[in-house]
Amino acid sequence: MRSLRHDGTRCVMRVLAILAIRNERPYLANCLSHLVENGIDFAVVDNGSADGSAELLHDSRFVQHLAGYHCVPFAGTFVWKEILLAQEQLVRTIDSDWILLLAPDEIMHSNFPGETLASAIERLDAKGYDVINFDEFVFLPIDHDYIPDYSGPQPLMHYYFWRPSMRAWRKRLNLSNIAGGGHWVEGADFHLSPETLVNRHYIFRDQAHAYAKYSHRTFDAEELARGWHSDRFQQPVTEFAFPPSDQLERLTSPDDRNLSRRHPHERHYWQWRTAEDLSNPKAERDQLKSKLDMIVRERAQTRRLSGESENGSQP
Predict the structure, then answer these.
(1) For a tag on the chain, would you pick the N or C end, based on fewer CB atoms within 10 A?
(2) CB count, 10 Å around CB of 78?
(3) Measured on CA atoms in the order 30, 32, 35, 39, is the torsion positive or negative?
(4) pLDDT tens track for 28-47
(5) Contacts of 291 (CB under 8 A, 6+ apart)
(6) Closest CA to 70 of 57, 52, 51
(7) Mind spelling out the 3-state secondary structure of the chain?
(8) Residues in Cβ contact with 299 at an 8 Å cutoff, skipping those fewer than 6 apart
(9) Residue 12: pLDDT band by 50, 70, 90 thresholds?
């Protein structure tokens, strides 16, 4: 089935969004409503939701756009590769022209007012491009909390530019995003669009959510060894306090599409203080001295326990 564009006309091609969910009910209705309004059907991999997310998929607003569903049981550990594999297998069973990867806390759109996301992808498809980057803008609830089940753009105005990632690709090329952890694709040769589209990432709903979201999450050991989740794993909870608004960009209105790319960030905001410390020579020297002092104390304690004197000889 081909989706309808926002103006009611039939899309020439089918764009299929693939989502992974686990207890995402506060985000999910906004995400699905936006997809439907933008002419995009969706398939879902559910990692054991128990908050009504699965039931929402069958709401009359969304059920006719639900193209596929698969449940991956949750065993207490977040295993992203397992979810990516399930997503890849699910989309292979569904007729579509393009695949779009997004999370429930993300809203993706064209750069141009009035152009739906499906139309933007169709336009770039017609130019011969196979893969599309989405620039990620992380919005923080500085002056307003995120609103579930909200009609229209979220009233969150402050954000920072994170980085682009390959989130849409032509299905017939059989590209895979597993090695890239969902950030880039590989496989056949492809033409990457020079035009990037927009991903608004509402990573936290409020300050309490920011403190809690990753504090109790258990990550897969093999994925941590590969370097995945390093910006989430064992981060000090206090660092998730939102930064001052003057360190962020600000929209003129919630539906403003003139997002600034002038100051890209290599790290998320909760790591900015660490990055500043490491770029400060004095702070770096102090940090090194602290580590050396700790090593000296540990060695002294080991000698005392083993009966060895401070100069290494036996008493």
Answers:
(1) C
(2) 18
(3) negative
(4) 999 999 999 999 999 999 99
(5) none
(6) 57
(7) CCCECCCCCECCCCEEEEEEECCCHHHHHHHHHHHHHCCCEEEEEECCCCCCHHHHCCCCCCHHHEEEEEECCCCCCECHHHHHHHHHHHHHCCCCCEEEECCCCEEEECCCCCCCHHHHHHHHHHCCCCEEEEEEEEEECCCCCCCCCCCCCCCCCEEEEEEEEEEEEEHHHCCECCCCCCCCCECCCCCECCCCEEEEECCCCCHHHHHHCCCCCCECHHHHHCCCCCCCCCCCHHHHCCCCHHHCEECCCCCCCCCCCCCECCCCHHHHHHHHHHCCHHHHHHHHHHHHHHHHHHHHHHHHHHCCCCCCCCC
(8) none
(9) confident
Averaged pLDDT for residues 48-61: 97
Tell me what the pLDDT averaged over the chain comes to. Answer: 88
Identify the pLDDT of residue 147: 98
Amino acid in the structure at residue 29: A
Instruction: Lowest mean pLDDT of 49-63, 104-118, 140-154, 267-281, name the range.
Output: 267-281
Q: What is the distance between the alpha carbons of residues 257 and 31, in angstroms, rounded to a whole number? A: 18
Q: Is 72 exposed, middle or buried (0-12, 13-18, 19+ CB in 10 A)?
A: middle
pTM, 2 dp: 0.84
Residue 33 corresponds to which tokens in the numbers above? 């409503």
Spell out a b/e string for 165-195, using b for 16 or more CB atoms within 10 Å of the CB, else e: bbbbbbbeeebebeeebbebbeeeebeebee
Residues in the chain: 315
